[in-house]
Specification:
Blueprint lengths: L9 H11 L13 H18 L3 E2 L5 E3 H4 L13 E3 L6 E4 L4 H9 L9 E10 L11 E10 L4 H17 L5 E6 L1 H10 L4 H12 L11 H13 L1 E2 H10 L4 H20 L5 E3 L14 E6 L7 E9 L5 E10 H7 L8 E4 L5 H9 L3 E4 L7 H7 L4 E4 L2 E4 L1
Parallel strand pairs: 1-5, 7-9, 13-14, 13-15
Antiparallel strand pairs: 2-4, 3-4, 5-6, 6-12, 7-10, 8-9, 10-11, 11-12, 15-16
Helix pairs in contact: 2-5, 5-10, 6-10, 8-9, 9-10
Length: 395
């Protein structure tokens, strides 16, 4: 005979529901007001991007794995969640970075659009593992890509838009750190450093560890030690880099870096600029100048970008420069959002009056319960103000 459930019968269900509230490590529910703050930052960034003519695109969260491993995507291979497509039995992957998707669009569906091509984007990315600086595994990435221009003005424009967009969100005291990841490879080629020794040199430079360079030839160590010495304010760094008197691609890269610094000094004089010729972590796929943007008091960079190559299906490539910002880092660098003011509207408030108040910028909470004390109900619902006799008053 079926009867009403006992009190004890409800406990397992309650326990199961509590377990549903648990999320995998590195994932979280974004609640108010943080979710609203994040959304407002995305709007601010995108408004700035679009004001410079960057058209917004929205690629899918999941693509075939092969598409996401082209070019720069190869560096994210170990970061991607994978799933089998039940229709085609092909392996799919969840994007860990959106830059490679913009490259795919530029090389395929937008291949015939006039260059330079300006694209902007925002969306969630997922990664299999967090890092010490970024423990979360899902976060919003926003950015721009300027594709099809080889000019130095392309780097300058992307840096300018990146800085202006961050300033528009409320960030102050920004600084710019320029990198030249290919320079280390050029010097390794010059001194015939390859394979494991090449990897060891790159790691030593990233770690700023001169002692770890002891196994290479004296001539090579002298050059790489100069790179370590060069890291610092842009003007001082350029003096050291130019003293290397490098020829070919390495010399051209340093000359281009010098011209970019001159442009930044002339047109963005308030922006502190440093150069780190040893840094390559996260810049492995860059084909030229890269950059990171920092805010005073923040250890991790707010965003990064630089020049890279977009590879087309027929094998030819075109140059591009991009910038990405991660919203979790941006939120950490900004003061907490103040709790929004909400206006309680007692029963009987006309639709016309309520609409007028919303037009003035109020967030209204309509009373849905008859016969309650409006002031008590306003406090219970967390409202800061109440409409009494046509007048807005603090609760």
């Amino acid at each position: 005979m079926n009867g009403p459930p006992s009190k004890s019968a409800g406990k397992p269900a309650s326990s199961a529901y509590a377990r549903q509230a648990l999320l995998p490590e590195g994932f979280r529910d974004q609640l108010a007001p943080m979710a609203e703050h994040e959304a407002s930052l995305v709007r601010s960034l995108m408004d700035c991007f679009q004001s410079y003519g960057y058209d917004r695109v929205a690629p899918p969260v999941v693509e075939y794995e092969a598409s996401l491993l082209v070019g720069a995507g190869a560096t994210r291979a170990n970061s991607m969640f994978r799933v089998m497509d039940p229709d085609t039995q092909n392996m799919m992957a969840v994007r860990a970075d959106m830059t490679v998707q913009l490259s795919r669009l530029a090389a395929t569906r937008l291949s015939e659009v006039a260059r330079p091509l300006r694209l902007s984007y925002s969306g969630n990315v997922l990664r299999t593992k967090g890092s010490q600086l970024r423990p979360t595994r899902q976060f919003i990435q926003a950015g721009i890509e300027l594709i099809g221009s080889t000019s130095l003005e392309a780097e300058f424009e992307v840096i300018k838009v990146a800085v202006e967009s961050l300033v528009a969100t409320g960030i102050k005291s920004l600084s710019l750190d320029l990198t030249v990841a290919p320079l280390v490879s050029f010097l390794c080629d010059k001194h015939n450093i390859a394979d494991q020794q090449r990897t060891a040199v790159i790691e030593a430079l990233n770690d700023k560890d001169s002692g770890a360079l002891a196994t290479i030839t004296p001539a090579a160590k002298t050059d790489f030690d100069q790179l370590l010495v060069a890291a610092g304010p842009a003007r001082d760094a350029l003096v050291v880099l130019r003293s290397l008197e490098l020829a070919g691609s390495a010399g051209q890269l340093i000359a281009r870096l010098g011209r970019l610094v001159e442009m930044l000094e002339a047109q963005m004089p308030a922006l502190p600029v440093t150069i780190d010729p040893c840094e390559s972590h996260g810049f492995e796929y860059k084909s030229g100048i890269g950059f990171g943007i920092f805010a005073k008091g923040n250890q991790s960079e707010l965003g990064r970008g630089g020049r890279y190559l977009v590879v087309h299906p027929d094998g030819h490539s075109e140059e591009a420069t991009g910038f990405s910002v991660y919203l979790d880092s941006l939120l950490d660098a900004l003061p907490a959002l103040q709790k929004p003011e909400k206006l309680f509207l007692p029963t009987g408030t006309s639709d016309k009056e309520a609409a007028s108040l919303r037009c003035e910028g109020w967030r209204t909470i309509q009373d849905l319960t008859e016969g309650v004390d409006p002031s008590k109900e306003a406090r219970r619902l967390g409202c800061s103000h109440i409409l009494l006799n046509g007048i807005v008053k603090p609760v």
